[in-house]
Write a structure and sequence with these properties.
The protein is α+β, with helices and mostly antiparallel strands and 587 residues long. It has 14 helices and 32 strands.
Length: 587
């Protein structure tokens, strides 16, 4: 049925809502697509719901095309499966928990690995039942710390999640590739620019993992790409190319020196250049080894300190560190923690206090650049003193390495060695090889060809369906309003009747019916006593790509077809209007 604006449940707004900062959020609210209920929780108004359903349809078609089967799990879930997988605790504050009248624990599903795994376990038992891919398009709930940009990061949102089940790794690879190709088709159809970046499998385990990021200057995710080869990766996933070990045989012995009032890298470098000038060049921050202490908080609340040694010209990147220590969370190492560890002298911590053999016993991990044979200025574990010429491998060792240092533009590409550059994006989809983690935790096994029980291997594939609406809006608008790609538009055509002449409205109605009969969906602005200016503004704000104006020209037998995307206008004889619209729509 055509939507008629005289009765459509829609109010467009002149002003941007106060809480909306990004254009997609402003425009989706102003054009009457969504309406806020509470932070991160939105109502889909009729126009918005149409766009959301269009996105769902694209996703559904492409999933069906690779043989995935649609089902639907409940959003309200019992605690037990999530306890079995450990995620009831791991999720911490990020899930909505609730109790039934008997006091039993439930949650609103943030993601459904457990349910998919258990459903397959329930019904299938043989390798002959596999491979299997199943998916749902469903509302998820996450108590996001920072809901943002309207539906871009909501606390209630729609996701497509699918899972593949295979007996062996080759099967998983095949399922992964099928999904990857389907995702390329989905994101091409959605009509935005995106990059596929290498990602971390994170807490989920598994091996191959890639994210589809919509490129957006105000995106939350930073990724890096190579300026030379095709390498692109999420910042969390970048692996620093490890330099070769250095021959340290000719290096002088380390010596401890007084460096009063040098608790920061800059004060230390200044002091070194003044008191211990080098002959070859000046000291720089990159000559110092900075030891950063953080507190890791495990899901069960256990707190253990961790020391990270990295070149003094780099900071620890919270996201990279977070991804490495998952499911533990990173907290600050506070004054009271220093008080409990008197061996750690704030501002002067050195390797001597760290690691299994250090005086504090605090676990010590090094940046991969700190290879054997490299020489450093670092803390001497006494206030106001540093050690110069401390050589990795000769004078100190650590408990291992960690990828936690920031990645910077100009760093070497792990793939080809050329410079990396950074860019920003919005995560639209994530595909990864889950492996056997959930199948093991929930005991999903099938009989293989030899009658032996084997653990099933799984892949997990998500698309942010509601986020895609915001993302497409973000990438397709101008100063006047939204500009939808055809496949997502809430209607194929926006017919605008202007003026006070009944014949104009009658003709608009007639064209609406004729076009509808030809399978074209119509938004008809049939409002009486609304000025043409307001109607045109609304049509620009709403953003249906083709607009048919029935107005003054009708007296001379013409109507106007406007392209919202280019602003092009042309007059066509009213008798040819239907064919002209069909041609415009490529039908
Ligand atoms: P993010 O890093 O953005 O928090 P995620 O890695 O937690 O996302 P997944 O669990 O991989 O997300 O979910 C699959 C997809 O669901 C994401 O790629 C994203 O498009 C979408 N998504 C995740 N969280 C939200 C949210 N709060 N609001 C809207 N869409 C979301
Ligand atoms: Mg993800």
């Amino acid at each position: 049925m055509a939507m008629r604006m005289s009765s459509l449940f829609l109010r467009t707004l002149r002003d941007n809502p106060a809480d909306a900062e990004v254009p997609s959020h402003q425009l989706l609210v102003r054009a009457g697509y969504i309406r806020r209920v509470s932070p991160g929780i939105y109502t889909w108004l009729p126009l918005g719901l149409k766009v959301l359903r269009n996105v769902e349809q694209i996703v559904r078609e492409e999933m069906d095309a690779i043989g995935a089967q649609e089902l639907l799990f409940p959003a309200l879930l019992p605690k037990e499966p999530y306890e079995a997988s450990g995620r009831w605790d791991e999720y911490g504050d990020n899930i909505f928990r609730l109790k039934d009248r008997k006091g039993n624990d439930y949650l609103l599903g943030p993601t459904h690995e457990e349910m998919f795994t258990l459903a397959v376990k329930d019904l299938f038992s043989s390798y002959k039942d596999l491979p299997l891919s199943i998916y749902q398009i469903q509302t998820k709930y996450r108590d996001e710390a920072r809901p943002r940009a309207g539906i871009l990061r909501g606390r209630e949102f729609v996701m497509k999640d699918s899972y593949s089940f295979d007996v062996d790794d080759a099967g998983l690879d095949k399922a992964y590739t099928l999904h990857r190709d389907a995702y390329i088709r989905i994101f091409d159809r959605l009509g935005f620019h995106y990059v596929i970046v290498e990602a971390m499998a994170g807490a989920m385990g598994g091996s191959r993992s890639e994210e589809f990021l919509a490129t957006a200057a105000n995106g939350e995710d930073t990724y890096v790409r190579c300026t030379s080869c095709g390498y692109a990766a999420n910042v969390e996933a970048v692996r620093v190319p490890v330099p070769d070990a250095v021959d340290a045989s000719g290096l002088p012995a380390a010596h401890v020196e007084d460096t009063p009032d040098t608790p920061t890298i800059q004060t230390l470098v200044d002091h070194l250049n003044e008191a211990y000038p080098r002959e070859d060049r000046a000291w720089t921050a990159g000559d110092t080894l900075k030891n950063v202490i953080v507190m890791l908080v495990q899901p069960d609340g256990t707190r253990t300190p961790l020391a990270i040694g990295l070149p003094g010209d780099r900071e620890v990147d919270e996201k990279r560190l977070g991804a490495q220590v998952e499911p533990a969370e990173v907290a600050a190492f506070e004054e009271k923690d220093f008080a409990a560890h008197p061996e750690l002298v704030k501002g002067y911590i050195g390797p001597g206090a760290l690691g299994e053999e250090g005086t504090s016993g605090v676990r010590y991990l090094l940046d991969p650049r700190v290879v054997p044979g490299t020489s450093w200025v670092t803390g001497a574990n006494e206030a106001g003193r540093h050690v110069i010429g401390l050589v990795a491998g000769r004078d100190f060792t650590a408990d291992g390495t960690i990828e936690a240092a920031e990645v910077r533009a100009g760093d070497a590409c792990p793939s080809c060695g050329h410079d990396l550059e950074t860019a920003r994006g919005i995560e639209m989809g994530h595909i990864f090889q889950l492996g056997r983690k959930y199948a093991e935790a929930l005991d999903l096994k099938v009989l293989d060809e030899n009658g032996k029980q084997v653990v099933v291997t799984m892949g997990s594939y998500g698309v942010g369906v509601s986020r895609a609406v915001a993302c497409v809006a973000e990438g397709n608008h101008d100063e006047l309003g939204l500009v939808w790609p055809r496949e997502l538009s809430p209607a194929d055509i926006h017919i605008v009747a202007t003026g006070k002449d009944q014949s104009v409205f009658d003709k608009g109605e007639e064209l609406t019916r004729e076009l509808e009969a030809r399978g074209v969906s119509v938004l008809f602005d049939d409002r009486w006593k609304v000025s043409p200016g307001v109607k045109f503004k609304d049509s620009e704000l709403i953003g249906i790509p083709t607009i048919l104006v029935v107005g003054r020209g009708l007296a001379d037998g013409t109507v106007e077809i406007k392209d919202r995307r280019t602003g092009d206008k042309r007059e066509v004889p009213v008798d040819e209007a239907v064919d002209a619209v069909l041609a415009e729509l490529g039908r």
